[in-house]
Sequence to fold (111 residues):
Amino acid sequence: MRYMLLICATDGEDAGPDDGTGMTIEQWVEEYDRRGIRLEGDRFAEPSDATTVRVRGGEVLLTDGPFADTKERIAGYDLLECADLDEAIEVASKHPMARAGMVEVRPFWTG
Fold:
């Protein structure tokens, strides 16, 4: 099954160098790329660089910035191919941002 990891941080928060409790982000990416579990992933630009698009009454409305003004932000994503939710949670628990922020694990819709 495919799972999306939404890598979340609080403003000003970053995983930084390894604190001795796990891998650096680069090591995590290398490990799960090598094992064929991580299919792709990347970091996002800052929320201030976002454009929010809404369509109301047939009119396209644009707003500079994120759709919600919060302290937390989605900093990036990783797409995984795992046997089940337990494996996806195990992989997410090893991500450095699980220590510095949080990682949301979300399965893809199976209809």
